[in-house]
Amino acid sequence: MEKMDRLWPEGYAFLFDDALFQPSTDSFLLGDFVRTRRGDRVCDLGAGTGLLGLLLLARQPELSVTDVEIQEAACDLARRSAELNGLGDRITVLRQDLCQLDGLPRSAFDLVVANPPYFSAGSGAVSPDPARSTARSEMRCTLEDVCAAADHLLRYGGRFFLVFRPDRMAELFALLQKFRLEPKRLRFVQHSAASAPSLLLLECRKGGRPGLAVEPPLLLKGPDGRDTPEADRVYFRDR
User: Fold this and answer.
1) d(CA 125, CA 109)
2) H or E element: which one contains 193?
3) What is the mean pLDDT of the chain?
């Protein structure tokens, strides 16, 4: 079933569908972690219904965003969300396999963002639904494909931001360095101070020098069990 929500009561509206991969905490976390500059050209790899692009534009209106997504139904929702918010001049939606980017010029973007499939083929719980399995598991593209695409699309010195699982961090770092994407800023996400990290947020620079800054963890819950001020900011509750 198709639904509509808003980032905050007067904020951008976004469309999604129960039959597709639904909006998740991961996208909101990544949208808050990404550092953008006025005029940045951004490409979202595996953009789904386009939520991440809206999250970035909500914080920096002067971006140009290109959504790359293979599922036509998701592309349709992303296009309609852009039109609904009057962002047709800011958001371009391309139905394209990120493993075949010959149609996109090399080194055309300042930023690439991605929420890659978390589970390698043959591991994790694979949904019987094709749309969800494509989003969560390496059924159509692998982590290496995503890193290769980021290398292809980024200009030298451009930045790659992603959200991923800590248990695959060693594999992730090896692939990033294979494609000249040097990890520069890392932040773990924890449910509480006593919890193990459940996600990692990472900023890389194409052609960057070695040197990784590890930031304090982002805690979603405080000692009282309530959402932290940072969690409120991630979800625009501070507006």
Assistant:
1) 34
2) none
3) 92
> Looking at this protein, which amino acid is placed at residue 119?
F
Residue 54's contacts (CB-CB under 8 Å, 6 or more residues apart) are: 7, 12, 14, 81, 85, 87
The structure tokens listed for 55 are 């999250």
Tens of pLDDT, residues 172-229: 999 999 999 999 999 999 999 999 999 999 999 999 999 999 999 999 999 999 999 9
Reference 118, options 200, 207, 193, 222; nearest CA is 200
Q: Rounded CA gap, 197 and 218, in Å?
A: 9
Angle at 22 (CA atoms; ends 18, 26), nearest 5 degrees: 165
Q: CA separation (Å) from 19 to 3, 15, 27, 32?
A: 11, 12, 18, 26
* Class of residue 210 by CB neighbours under 10 A (exposed 0-12, middle 13-18, buried 19+): exposed
CB-neighbour burial class of residue 9 (10 A; exposed 0-12, middle 13-18, buried 19+) = exposed
